[in-house]
UniProtKB/TrEMBL annotation:
InterPro entries: V-ATPase_116kDa_su, V-type_ATPase_116kDa_su_euka. Essential component of the vacuolar proton pump (V-ATPase), a multimeric enzyme that catalyzes the translocation of protons across the membranes. Required for assembly and activity of the V-ATPase. Its main location: membrane. The keyword Membrane applies. Pfam families: V_ATPase_I. Residues 101-135 form a coiled coil. It is found in: Membrane. Keywords: Coiled coil, Hydrogen ion transport, Ion transport, Membrane, Transmembrane, Transmembrane helix, Transport. It is a multi-pass membrane protein. It comes from the Eukaryota. It comes from Hevea brasiliensis (Para rubber tree). This is V-type proton ATPase subunit a. The chain crosses the membrane at residues 423-447, 468-485, 548-569, 581-601, 637-655, 756-777. Belongs to the V-ATPase 116 kDa subunit family.
Length: 819
């Protein structure tokens, strides 16, 4: 669980979870609200739901929760409005105003009503303003159409008059009069419509009108340079001004319907130039007036939102706390007298004094005549698991909890995970150059810890930041194992002295180790740099890392079995000690413990014995002579004894435990026809609880099958788990070879061209390949493999992981939850 601050608590102990107790609180109804509030500030009590049979609407405080939900909705509305207006809630601590929840509810209601009214008025004014802007554009653009048409018509008339004056004849006046009379009788009055249509719809708009009226229209359009805000949608849109000339009412009706379908906004227009100018002046005046009104309205709205923003954090915190208090109160049961509420919950034993102090303080502050009653209940129910962690150990505990929460007070693998997890990662990742890169990246998170912890980060960034201390240890251990492997981006260095070997002749680099002769003392720390680059490098490192993987795997599996012994001792389970721990230790170490011993003996003596041959024929031909594969005197007899012990340990694990469990069950329930009367109601309740769980029929077949599965799993798992640790060797080899390929085939190859551009390109490719493949993908791969080794190979030896977490009622945890 989370970190507990303050000097009131005992020292942190991660090996076993905190001792828990089931407590009962009887609280007077007049002080219950303040009591729960103080317990929420304390954050050390997990309430049990005593009304689980009731629906949320049938509970006592359903109306108050509904009221808090409505207040939370208003606050969300304010937050949305502030985000739209670019006003951020004040993060500075404000002076706490003494306002109760009823007063806050009224205030929030008034502010919401005022803000909704301001929004509605602002929307109306903004729509009118946008319509006037469009109208002004129509007046200007359409006015240009008519003025240009009038000037061209006047010019044509003058031209015709001058032509008529120049062509004088006897017939002309008569013909002219006849034409004039004929034209005046055939004159048709044309109507027109003006407005704006979106630019992307303009061509389709004209085409539809042309087809609908069969070409009996005349359309003029002009593009507007700047996008305008559409009055209906409120979005900026590029538009064209149009003027459609038509003849007849049927054509007008069709055009109006098409305008409506295309979202074209129509505006009235007059042919009279004088009226046009007056309308432009009038519209311009109204636009300026509306602009002033809008600006003052926006300023007033911003001031209101700023006022809300100054108090928003405090109000939001109050509402969230109040809602959580009533949710908790709904978990309490009413006493028969309906004058007090009864609460039950889990708390750590060390928190008893603090809880009692909070109860006393709440009774005093609420002027209650009767104080709350605190008492510890005895129960056989399994308590929740609670580990007090800090910012360093939290991430390691989360790694364990992801597999399963520890059973109450069983041995916690998180203690050992702090060391073993980063170490096994480093065995696969070992390169002190890459380790330094990983360390520098992690230090950025650690140095900026305070700043980043208060920010909302992305999913991947937040996950990486949460595990910053895990990555820190991973980087440090990687530097350590990298120094052992003597690899810095796959390049060896003589950091701890000169090499112990030298070439016998000039061609020894291309030869095996026989071309090298030892000329000095053994290289003091890690792998001798002379091995890198030789033909025998791969066989040497393969052998070294493979044997090292087996040693580490057997050591960690033994640790897991030893922890099962500590669990058995703590829970006073003698059967698990004699018929689980001892045979498991014998079986594992008779085979793989013996193999580890052979590896160490071979390293110490320099023997050429074939360990594969030794282990195979230990099973197939245990009586055969070992010959050149003998590593020590009496090895044959020792192998026969170990093989016999391994064979005996299998039925030892399988048979006695189910039989003894059956006998214990029979002994426990013999002569229980008569039971003594229980003195108190509490002990009666405990006995009823015990009867419901403890007096179940003992199924020997089920117990035996379960033990059979457990035995087979361990026997086969001992082989498969040991083989699984060879992934340490495989991934270490893969990381080393990839690093070597990038160095030799990219960086050195680019260097060999003696070209600056090729060298720069090579360096860039090398950097990106190193970061992308080795520092990201390989890190993730090694992390997942280390995770598997801990979850499966280590934890399955002792860890049940069937507990449940301790989730106290705490206001400090509300900030991470949604409303």
């Amino acid at each position: 669980m989370g970190e507990v601050r303050g000097g009131c608590c005992p020292p942190m102990d991660l090996f076993r979870s905190e001792a828990m107790q089931l407590v009962q609180l009887i609280i007077p109804i007049e002080s219950v609200h303040l009591t729960v509030s103080y317990l929420g500030d304390l954050g050390l009590l997990q309430f049990k739901d005593l009304n689980s049979e009731k629906s949320p609407f049938q509970r006592t405080y359903a109306a108050q929760i509904k009221k808090c939900g409505e207040m939370a909705r208003k606050l969300r509305f304010f937050k949305e409005q502030m985000e739209k207006a670019g006003v951020s809630p004040s993060s500075k601590p404000v002076t706490r105003t003494d306002i109760d929840m009823d007063g806050l509810d009224l205030k929030l209601g008034e502010l919401e009503a005022e803000l909704v009214e301001m929004n509605a008025n602002n929307d109306k004014l903004q729509r009118t303003y946008n319509e006037l802007i469009e109208y002004k554009l129509v007046l200007l653009k359409a006015g240009e159409f008519f003025s240009s048409a009038l000037s061209s018509a006047t010019a044509q008339q003058r031209e015709m008059e001058s032509r008529q004056v120049g062509e004088e004849s006897l017939d002309t006046p008569l013909l002219a009069d006849q034409e004039i009379s004929t034209d005046s009788s055939k004159q048709v009055k044309l109507g027109f419509l003006t407005g704006l249509v979106p630019k992307e719809k303009s061509l389709a708009f004209e085409r539809i009108i042309f087809r609908a009226t069969r070409g009996n229209v005349f359309i003029r359009r002009a593009a507007i340079e700047e996008p305008v805000i559409d009055p209906v949608s409120g979005e900026k849109t590029e538009k064209n001004v149009f003027v459609v000339f038509y003849s007849g009412e049927r054509a007008k009706t069709k055009i109006l319907k098409i305008c409506e379908a295309f979202g074209a906004n129509r505006y009235p227009f007059t042919e009279d130039l004088g009226k046009q100018n007056r309308m432009i002046d009038e519209v311009s005046g109204r636009v300026s007036e509306l602009k002033t009104t809008l600006d003052s309205g926006i300023l007033h709205r911003s001031n209101l939102l700023q006022t809300i923003g100054d108090q928003f954090v405090q109000w939001n915190s109050m509402v969230r706390k109040e809602k959580s208090i009533y949710h908790t109160l709904n978990m309490l049961s009413l006493d028969v007298t309906k004058k007090c509420l009864v609460a039950e919950g889990w708390s750590p034993v060390f928190a008893s004094k603090q809880i009692q102090e909070a109860l006393q303080r709440a009774a005093f502050d609420s002027n209650s005549q009767v104080g709350a009653i605190f008492q510890v209940l005895h129960t056989k129910e399994s308590p929740p698991t609670y580990f007090r962690t800090n910012k360093f150990t939290t991430a390691f505990q989360e790694i364990v909890d992801a597999y399963g929460v520890a059973k109450y007070q069983e041995a916690n693998p998180g203690v050992y995970t702090i060391v073993t997890f980063p170490f096994l990662f480093a065995v696969m990742f070992g390169d002190w150059g890459h380790g330094i890169c990983l360390l520098l990246a992690t230090l950025i998170y650690i140095i900026r810890e305070k700043k980043l912890s208060g920010q909302k980060l992305g999913d991947i960034t937040e996950m990486t930041f949460g595990g910053r201390y895990v990555i820190l240890l991973m980087a440090l251990f990687s530097i350590y194992t990298g120094l052992i492997y003597n690899e810095f981006f796959s390049v060896p260095f003589e950091l701890f002295g000169s090499s112990a070997y030298a070439c016998r002749d000039l061609s020894c680099r291309d030869a095996t180790t026989e071309g090298l002769i030892k000329v000095g003392s053994t290289y003091p720390f890690g792998v001798d740099p002379v091995w890198h680059g030789t033909r025998s490098e791969l066989p040497f490192l393969n052998s070294l890392k493979m044997k090292m993987s087996i040693l580490l795997g057997v050591a960690q599996m033994n640790l897991g079995i030893i922890l099962s012994y500590f669990n058995a001792v703590y829970f006073r389970n003698g059967l698990n000690i004699w018929f689980q721990f001892i045979p498991q230790m014998i079986f594992l170490n008779s085979l793989f413990g013996y193999l580890s011993l052979l590896i160490i003996v071979k390293w110490c003596t320099g023997s050429q014995a074939d360990l594969y041959h030794v282990m195979i024929y230990m099973f197939l031909s245990p009586t055969d002579e070992l010959g050149e594969n003998q590593l020590f005197a009496g090895q044959k007899i020792a192998q026969q004894v170990l093989l016999l012990l391994a064979l005996v340990s299998v039925p030892w694990m399988l048979l006695p435990k189910p039989l003894l469990l059956k006998k214990q069950h029979q002994d426990r329930h013999q002569g229980q026809s008569y039971t003594p009367l229980q003195i108190t109601e509490e002990s009666l309740q405990v006995e009823v609880n015990h009867d419901s769980h403890g007096h179940e029929e003992f199924e020997f077949s089920e117990v035996f099958v379960h033990q059979l599965i457990h035995t087979i799993e361990f026997v086969l798992g001992a082989v498969s788990n040991t083989a699984s640790y060879l992934r340490l060797w495989a991934l270490s080899l893969a990381h080393s070879e990839l690093s070597s390929v990038f160095y030799e085939k990219v960086l050195l190859l680019a260097w060999g061209f003696n070209n600056v551009i090729i060298l720069i390109v090579g360096i860039i490719i090398f950097i990106f390949a190193t970061i992308g493949v080795l520092l990201v993908m390989e890190t993730l791969s090694a992390f997942l493999h280390a995770l598997r080794l801990h979850w499966v190979e280590f934890q399955n030896k002792f860890y049940e992981g069937d507990g449940y977490k301790f989730y106290p009622f705490s206001f400090a945890l509300l900030s991470d939850e949604d409303d």
